[in-house]
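Hi support team,

I'm opening this ticket because the web form for multi-chain structure prediction keeps timing out on my end. I have pasted the exact lines I submitted so you can reproduce it. The total is 301 residues across two entries, so I didn't expect it to be a heavy job. Is there a limit I'm missing, or should I split the entries? Thanks in advance, R.K.
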Amino acid sequence: MKARVQVMLKDGVLDPQGEAVRHALGSLGFEGVEGVRQGKVIELDLDETDPEAARAKVNEMCEKLLANTVIESYAVEVG
Amino acid sequence: MHAAVLVFPGSNCDRDLAVALERAGARVSMVWHKDTALPEGTDLVAIPGGFSFGDYLRCGAIAANSPICRSVVAHADRGGYALGICNGFQVLTETGLLPGVLLRNAGLKYICKAVALRVETADSPYTAGYAPGSTITVPIAHHDGNYFADPDTLDRLRGDDRVAFRYVDNPNGSVDDIAGILSQNRRVLGMMPHPERMAEPLHGGTDGAALFEGLVAQVVPA
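Hello R.K., no limit was hit. The queue was backed up. Here is the completed structure from your submission:
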């Protein structure tokens, strides 16, 4: 079973990389980009076959390692 | 004092840190990240700068979950001393021994230069060798040194006099100019600047030496 984790900086945490991307888009002529937030996607291959058990396991992985919940939020997709 | 300097794949300040501690009078053991226990009688764990595990995932995150770091957390929990410099500070925040995180520098660039720091408290074994309010010059060398913590945490750090060092001229966007912080019991210090790189005359200055000398003089066995 596959799982996909999206990790993003929480609202209110300054994202200097996203800001740099926003400036670069502006200098390329893309107007009207009011904000850019950059995150990461982590894909996992699991031997678990039960979606709920997989989700619980991946949530635990996020809490312990994949995300730093001081500054990051995460979303898990399973299946 | 017996100091254990941790070594991860990608650590690059481990030997400098060991030399600075030895010069101050400490006995030093180098400890590999796969070891599960600290040497018998370890008083201080010193976590060096560098790029542990290539900064993969987040700076310090993989190192913080390595076998030796479980022993480091247990050591700190029972009142042992721990010093994290640069990547070591990032590791300490990732273990939860110190609050907050180190974000990418506000200017997005890696910065390597000597900076002025203000010693904000002398009330710790690490800063006892300095006059509070004094300014020292110590190098920084980091891409992710932008300290961030939520307002409640910052209030607590300030209220408990746990900000050890502030930048005189903030180079990286750190909230409240914070360069180094102490744990609640004042025995764990994390700082981005490198005192071990300003610890003998050949370095161009010796402002960092007092940190190690003060530490060796103050530490009582855990």
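A quick check on our side: The domain at 2-78 of chain A is CATH 3.30.1280.10 (Mth169; Chain: A ,). Let us know if the file doesn't open in your viewer.
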